[in-house]
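re: ur question from earlier - yeah i can do the single chain one, its not a big deal. heres the input i used so u can compare w yours
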Amino acid sequence: MYAVEVYAAVRRFVFIEGKSRREAARVFGLNRETVAKMCRFSLPPGYTRRKPVAKPKLGPLLPVVDAILEADREAPVKQRHTAQRIFERLRDEHGFGGGYTVVKDYVRLCRGRERETFVPLAHPPGHAQVDFGEAVGIIGGVRCKMHFFCMDLPQSDAPFVKAYPAETTEAFLDGHVSAFAFFGGVPQSILYDNTTIAVAKICGDGKRERTRAFTGLVSHYLFADRFGRPGKGNDKGKVEGLVKHARSRFMTPIPQAASFDAFNAELLERCRARQGECAGRHAETIGERLVADQAALRALPAGTFEPCETRSARVSSTALVRYRTNDYSVPTRYGFQDVVVKGFVDEVVILCGGDEISRHPRSYGTGVFVADPLHYLALLETKPGALDQAAALQDWNLPQVFQHLRHLLEARMGNRGKREFIQVLRLLEAMPMEIVTFAVGQAIQIGAIGFDAVKQIALARIERRAPRLDLAAYPHLPKMDVRTTRAADYAALVPQTPQELVL
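and the output i got, formated as tokens:
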């Protein structure tokens, strides 16, 4: 095929300079039919094949190739045939004597027919898409997998990203609450995939049965929920792109932070900085286009929404409540009672009869025992012999003065001293640690070794007065004879000589 420059030269030679086609063929060394074609067309018309290329060697084996490609549809993506592997099988199993190129071209043609094409979508302001992503990070010096919540406003491409230790119901709910606060409003609709956190069941008619937690979220914020087709991530392509962007731009290299709170503060700043950039073919920045999105958002509701998972449970004989494979303590008086557990991202709250009875930091381990030593002191007071083996007290890092007090109490009172020591510990149920620690130290300093003395000193400290101790209760204290003051004792203060009187 001749270049367009040759067409232009021949046509100028014939039509402008007035030369004959015969002469043009001679001058340019072309066939007269070629010159005639150049005179008919200003550009090379291109080559159109009228008949399919004959494949004498591959033709009889085309059904075999088709069968391999059909079977690949059911195979894992990473275990499907490449064109090279199909060529090797045709050669080894069917005696194919042709080349690799003809096999590769046919495979490419077949797979091209199966690829999905898409309709460009318009994104009106005030709508959102949500998804979770995964990445590796170092949090608190520990390498771990992070799950990050992403909300994207497709009209402006404005992002919100927040990381969590796990992709849980409470993380899903907390992500929404945080995103709504970040954008300053509630989207009119949000598009999701079919995550089990939101969808309990996909019905045959395409409808979804929502989970209780997700229904509560929708009921509070009153946005419309939409769901993509199962297995079709392109239905929410904007947030899928945000997940990739966050992983490559916000979390590469592997991020390090002291805590998830610290890392999420960094992510928040990156999301704000992203608003100053342009996305796609838009000349305006994301922040400039965000104005239209925010104008279309609904106002935040007046009431608060608790982003937590709520479960019913029962207190065990050891005053423990199990939540997501971990055990959390409650005061022993609630043993065998029904309770409600609220699992937040960073803490677990336990209620009985509507009243909060326990609050613990959230653990994401497995089989972890999370206990408050104060929950077991009332029971230990009746069973002081279990003090040294009580699991809840094993890692209780008390100030050293408490251990000193215990040694003194047990040395002077025996077993009764152990019970009094537990009574001292129970002061921590109602008083701050620093107050009780001060009282214990003062009691040891003055030799008033006992629960009552520690209690009186602590109360006096709180009430900002001098302690009133019954020292008779401490016979081990050394006796002191304090003489009664007489009037004559004041004579030492009166001048005795005339000179002193004059002065």
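The chain has 17 helices and 15 strands. not sure if urs matches, ping me
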